[in-house]
Amino acid sequence: MSEQHETIEDRVTDLTIDVPSDNNENELPTTPADPEANGKEEDQKQQQQQQQQETQNSKPISVRQMRKLKNPQRKRHGARNQHKNKIFVKWLIDRFHLKTVASDEDPISSSPIVLDVAGGKGEVAARLTMCHLQKVVMVDPRPADVAHCFDTLVYPKIPNKWQKRLDDQRKENPNVVQDKLANRFQQLVTTFDEYTITSNPELQNAIQNARLILGLHADGATEAIVDAALQYNKPFCVVPCCVFPNLFRSRKVENEATGEMVPVRSHEQFCKYLADKDERFQTEILPFEGRNVAIWWDGN
Questions:
Q1: CA 133 to CA 104: how far, in whole Å?
Q2: The pTM of the whole model exceeds 0.70
Q3: How far is Cα 91 from Cα 175, in angstroms, rounded to an integer?
Q4: How do strand 252-254 and strand 293-297 relate by DSSP bridges?
Q5: Are 188 and 137 in contact (CB under 8 A)?
Q6: What burial class does residue 30 get, using C-beta atoms within 10 Å of its C-beta: 0-12 exposed, 13-18 middle, 19+ buried?
Q7: What rounded mean pLDDT belongs to the chain?
Q8: With helix as H, strand as E and coil as C, how does 8-49 read?
Q9: Could you tell me which residue, 63 or 249, shows the higher pLDDT?
């Protein structure tokens, strides 16, 4: 029995190490390889090596970079509207003929201002104050560091001659941006809705001093901007974004096909709903991708 066992074992060993010669095309291996399986294994090994290299790197990996590693062929979804704030501000200056009307010595509380509602990080406010010498009051429940926003988002994109001028001023005063903003910018950390407008005297004063009320993708405050502009007879511009149909259930718009009043659920319906509030309102498509429908009124 031992001899028979050794013979079988020898045969198994022979089968294991017996590899067909490259010159003999008719000779096949004992277990043929699966090309698809080998390809998957190679892909998995490459992904593991990439992840190990990134893990060893001292710099943290962003979510966007991680997605790119997992799927190099992945295309960016959404609109390419990274310049929307710059385009929007330039359009505002031209459309509403915004010129500097007050010096830095005048207090912002008594100066004609641009009221920026739901300004977020403050890029629109930073561009209006630092690049176009406007006085801005921004309304947003989240405190914003507009000086940091200017240095990181606006300053790298302004013309070189403006950068040099500001760099020269910073040599004499390292806090020149903060000092300019102290005279030109103020934030009211609150919401912008009917209740807040009627109960907040500081917000009421800002609306009364406003020569323009604006909201770029102001979300839930968009309709409140339009209503406040009508109530106080102020020029305004809104670029609607989110609709929130479950939050604002009373909004109705006419269905042009049937003539019936239907709930506002789409972006197109929301824009029509706002534009229909007054026949003097204008609608314009702005030159950036994404939600770019501007509804505005010059106050006349």
A1: 9
A2: yes
A3: 30
A4: unpaired
A5: yes
A6: exposed
A7: 83
A8: HHHHHHHHHHCCCCCCCCCCCCCCCCCHHHHHHHHHHHHHHH
A9: 249
